[in-house]
Amino acid sequence: MLILLPPSEGKSVPSRGAALDLSGLALPELTHARREVLDALVTLCRDDPAKAAEVLGLSAGQVDLVDRNADLPSAPTARADRIYTGVLYDALDVATLSPAAKRRATSRVAVASSLFGMVRFGDRIPSYRLSGDASLPHLGPVAAVWREALPPVMTAALGRGLLVDLRSGMYANFWKPGPELAPRVATVRVLHEHNGTRKVVSHFNKATKGRIVRALLEDGADPRTPAALADVLGRLGWTVETASGKSGTQLDIVVSEL
């Protein structure tokens, strides 16, 4: 099973740690593309901070993020599961997982990244700012870079397992599994039900996804099909509805309270 998560916009900033070593990251086949995106981002932020703030969609109070990006090659790094923060990662709370669940997290979870394409929790990365819809000078849209680089790498990483896709739409565009993988693709959506009406609510969506991943890692089950995953989630206490399509199976998790 391979669980894909979105990154967080906010990130913790390590105060110390080794500098970034691209060759040491998981999925080394992405090193060339990672170097291209990193070089384009650092060059922009060093040479034209005003343009960088515009490209990165930063407000006047966020200009320090431009300086942080400019220093990425020498910035301290930490494990990715300590860099990414926010509602989903707070609910997942990797630090308090059992030892067995932490081992599963290292091998079963990957995080979509505008800068690195995809990272594992054990990868050491710096804090950075780069949105999935950004377009960098002399490189173009970062999404296009990853749409080219990720497909063969992620197909190989998935192997014969089940893909559990919890990415948001922007990051799902980095890699869309081909139709040959559809029988092993489960896309998870969280719906908040209130007074008979269902809708996607960002906070419920993120928090519930974090709790789902935590529960799966602690449980240890390794379902091989979307139907088997739905059964596991039902056993773990969630209300699950499924709908199959050409690109895979959508699992709707219906919640009434956080």
From TrEMBL:
Q: Which InterPro entries match?
A: YaaA
Report which superkingdom the organism of origin falls in: Bacteria
- Pfam families (alphabetical): H2O2_YaaD
**What PANTHER family has UniProt attached to this entry?**
PEROXIDE STRESS RESISTANCE PROTEIN YAAA, PEROXIDE STRESS RESPONSE PROTEIN YAAA
Q: What is this protein called?
A: Peroxide stress protein YaaA
The protein's organism comes out as Nocardioides ginsengisoli
